[in-house]
UniProtKB/TrEMBL annotation, chain A:
Cellular compartments annotated: Cell inner membrane; Cell membrane
Keyword Disulfide bond assigned: no
Organism: Sinomicrobium oceani
Matches recorded under SUPFAM superfamilies: P-loop containing nucleoside triphosphate hydrolases
Bilayer topology term: Multi-pass membrane protein
Similarity field: Belongs to the TRAFAC class TrmE-Era-EngA-EngB-Septin-like GTPase superfamily. FeoB GTPase (TC 9.A.8) family.
Protein's name according to its UniProt entry: Ferrous iron transport protein B
From TrEMBL, chain B:
The organism of origin for this protein: Sinomicrobium oceani
A Pfam cross-reference name: FeoA
Keyword presence, Lyase: no
SMART domains reported for this sequence: FeoA
Molecular-function annotations in GO: transition metal ion binding
The protein, known as: Ferrous iron transport protein A
Keywords annotated in UniProt: Iron
Boundaries of every Ferrous iron transporter FeoA-like domain copy: 3-74
Length: 702, 81
């Protein structure tokens, strides 16, 4: 009975680019979930697979790893799990995924896993490419030589998946004998190691010792403590590791000699001819920028239609809820807080989905590695890596998916820097703010055929980019990490992306945004709604009477009266009081308390700025021209001059260019860095930087 | 003057002779960058950095600073013609 309920715990292990995730998708379908491992930001993908006879397998898709000698956080995780038998995820059986074209290199990891004395199944994937590449394989002999069971699989065609399921079900019959004796590389050393720790497994001890030399980040509570055993220097250990690699390759070469043949006359393949164009010194960049252009087109133009639709739908849903529910605070909360709050999350879905669609296509096809190759040199000057290109570009659409896209960067320091600087890129939410302020303060004149206003907009985009790479450079100089950054990028084969993989990626990433960041956005918008629709004093509660009384005797339309009441209420709401309270702090920047309200309310989302000003300046319609005219008439009570002059305008533009002002980004950075430390540092730094530049600009220009 | 991977021209091949074990990451050994294995330079980015290689059947790109550390013996194919 207990056997029926127990799930077989399976770990999928394999080098990157072996189609491991495709196999995972084939085994689990949409029956999977993506989360984070506690304490670190490595994605944890797990799913359930139904085997025959009512038995189920719990499948854990471990991060891609080249070997059991960790050089990244992802790889470290795999080793910690495999060294710790008490871990709840410790597998009953390991399934090692390999690519038939790279079998030699992929088998290195297999021999290491086998040395852990874990039941291990070998999956040889991409079997559909064997004919074209002239590869033939003696599976039966290979099974014997490697002392394992093999499934020849094509995750693309979906063949061989049932064989994996059969082998998993029958895992108890797998041999747990190692196929390489690692201790042969230095008998005396390994003997003394075993004598020092007679209860421990020798290969595991060796792994712990060498991890210390490489990565120095293993969790001491879960692995045997070998720190007392220091009989070799670092460089001696490394020499042994090289010997171990040679030893393993000797075994692999001997094994493959009789079982694996390649017909050299078979077609050389697509790689060389595609690479000649795609990594070309000139055409490579031209093509890359062409793809970028297409991406931006999609993110801005194509997603505008669904976004408008979502916007309108939520607005009418709000109206509808207001109409159908009995009037009261609860209805207001739903129609003014909850529904617009959910709408604020949902509206990001088209952009995020488009972005991840493109990224998934570029990744799946193998093109992304070529971009990394092309851009690495340029990015390195700023402490970034070739892999930072995609997030930075995405940041010009929206920082949220951009921060999520940094997951491709293995090196933690380079990834962290990328996460921290990406919000400087000019995202689409800054655009409406820029447009209205530029129209107000920058003259619509031309110099040498160039429009001042267009020029200003371009400068702002450029400033965002410069702030990003500039702060990356500073962070690069001050951040210290234990991991030594080094750059080895595998250049995978070109492949036609698998629809199923692309769809699953887009759905998973979008889902994790909606449920991850969504919760926080929703909470913030409800709080904002509360603060804007409640006030502590009589003046808030009796706004209607006060304003009506004030207008006694004057002719005023109902609509004008309503907007004036709304604006009077806002002034006396909690958020209005906050605006007045911070006025002394923002006066040196050239702002009054009304801009203060806009700043406070756009603290959560900068695009709120225009809408808030519209309400404050008692504008009934949100037509841009009207807001603009009203704003243009505003007088600064301190100076008696126009409030929105060049100095105030430029100061505001710079403030919005550099301030973080996006709760969703804070939420996503918190999630991606697993803690409040970095988002708070980022928020404080960006706000301070924005304040200081705005201050300098106003004081110089006024 | 010693020859390293960074000294290869596009399309040229060599046999790895010596690797400074202390500096080169283990990962590179494990990807097949070991003495005796063949390396071919396939493509270079502008400023010859990074380099795109075929090492022992693995397609990798490494930075120039790393390539300069890996000594090789060039295979002179032109003499075979």
């Amino acid at each position: 009975m207990s056997l029926m309920n127990k799930q077989i715990k399976v770990a999928l292990i394999g080098n990157p680019n072996t189609g491991k995730t495709s196999v995972f998708n084939q085994l689990t379908g949409l029956n999977q979930k993506v989360g984070n491992y506690p304490g670190i930001t490595v994605e944890k993908k797990e799913g359930v697979c139904k085997l025959s006879r009512g038995v189920k397998a719990h499948i854990l898709d471990l991060p891609g790893t080249y070997s059991l000698n960790a050089t990244s956080l992802d790889e470290n995780l795999v080793i910690e799990l495999l060294l710790n038998k008490k871990d709840k995820d410790y597998p009953d059986v390991a399934v090692v995924i390999t690519d038939v074209e790279n079998l030699k290199r992929n088998l290195l990891l297999f021999t290491q896993i086998k040395d852990l004395k874990l039941p291990t199944i070998l999956v040889i994937n991409m079997a559909d490419r064997m004919d074209r590449k002239g590869i033939s394989l003696d599976v039966a002999l290979l099974e014997k030589k490697l002392n394992t069971r093999i499934a020849l699989v094509s995750s693309r065609k979906g063949t061989g998946i049932d064989r994996i399921k059969e082998l998993i079900l029958d895992y108890r019959s797998l041999s747990t004998e190692p196929c390489v004796n690692a201790s042969a590389i230095d008998r005396t050393y390994f003997d003394s190691l075993q004598n020092a720790f007679p209860d421990q497994d020798l290969y595991k001890l060796w792994l712990v010792i060498t991890q210390d030399a490489n990565f120095a980040d293993l969790n001491r509570h879960t692995v045997p403590d070998t720190s007392s055993f220091n009989t070799k220097s670092r460089s001696e250990l490394k020499r042994l590791q090289q010997k171990e690699a040679i030893h393993r390759y000797q075994f692999i070469n001997n094994t493959l000699k009789d079982t694996y043949t390649t017909d050299m006359h078979a077609a050389k393949g697509l790689r060389a001819s595609l690479d000649r164009i795609l990594t070309h010194k000139v055409w490579g960049y031209v093509i890359f920028f062409g793809i970028l252009l297409l991406m931006f087109q999609a993110i801005f133009n194509w997603s505008a239609y669904p976004m408008d639709f979502i916007d309108e739908s939520f607005a009418s849903l709000s109206e509808w809820a207001k109409g159908i529910l009995p009037a009261g605070v609860f209805t207001d909360l739903i129609s003014e807080g909850l529904i617009p709050g959910i709408g604020g999350v949902v509206i990001f879905i088209p952009q995020i989905a488009f972005l991840f669609l493109f990224i998934a296509l570029l990744e799946e096809s193998g093109y992304m590695s070529r971009v990394v190759f092309l851009m690495d040199k340029g990015m390195r000057r700023f402490g970034l890596s070739g892999k930072s290109v995609v997030p930075l570009i995405s940041g010009a659409a929206c920082a949220i998916p951009a921060v999520m896209a940094t997951r491709n960067i293995e090196n933690w320091k380079e990834r962290l820097i990328t996460i921290l600087v990406t919000p400087f890129m000019t995202c689409s939410a800054r655009l409406p703010v820029y447009l209205i302020i530029i129209a107000l303060v920058i003259p619509d004149k031309r110099v040498m055929g160039l429009n001042y206003q267009g020029l200003m907009l371009m400068i702002l985009y450029l400033l965002g980019f410069l702030a990003a790479v500039g702060s990356a450079y500073v962070l690069h100089k001050i951040l210290k990490t234990k991991t030594k950054p080094f750059f080895v990028v595998e250049m995978p084969n070109y492949k036609i992306p698998l629809l199923k993989n692309v769809v699953i990626t887009v759905v998973e990433k979008t889902k994790s945004f909606v449920f991850g960041a969504g919760k926080i956005i929703l909470a913030i918008s409800i709080i904002l709604w509360f603060l804007a629709s409640n006030g502590p004093s009589e003046r808030f509660d009796n706004a209607e009477e006060i304003v009506t009384e004030h207008h006694q005797g004057t002719v005023i339309s109902e609509e004008e009266l309503q907007t004036e009441i709304a604006s009077y209420q806002l002034e006396n709401s909690y958020i209005g009081i906050v605006g007045k309270a911070i006025e002394p702090a923002i006066r040196p920047l050239g702002y009054d308390w009304k801009i203060g309200i806009a700043l406070v309310s756009s603290f959560a989302a900068r695009e709120v700025f225009v809408g808030t000003l519209a309400t404050i300046y008692s504008v009934g319609s949100e037509e841009e021209d009207t807001i603009k005219n009203r704003m243009a008439k505003e007088i600064n009570p301190a100076t008696g001059e126009k409030l929105f002059n060049l100095a105030t305008g430029v100061s505001l533009l710079l403030f919005y260019a550099f301030a973080m002002q996006c709760m969703s980004t804070v939420a996503i950075v918190k999630r991606e860095t697993n803690g409040w430390k970095w988002p708070i540092i980022q928020l404080v730094f960006m706000s301070a930087f924005a304040y200081i530049t705005a201050l300098i600009a106003y004081q110089v220009l006024k | 003057m010693k020859t390293t991977i960074a000294h290869l021209k596009r399309g040229e091949k060599g046999i790895i002779t010596d690797i400074p074990i202390d500096i080169i990451p283990v990962k590179l050994f494990e990807m097949g960058c070991l003495p005796g294995n063949q390396v071919e330079l396939l493509q270079v980015a502008p400023f010859r950095d990074p380099l795109y290689l075929n090492i022992n059947g693995s397609f990798l790109s490494i930075r120039r600073e790393t390539a300069l550390l890996i000594e090789i013996e060039k295979i002179n194919e032109t003499t075979e013609l």
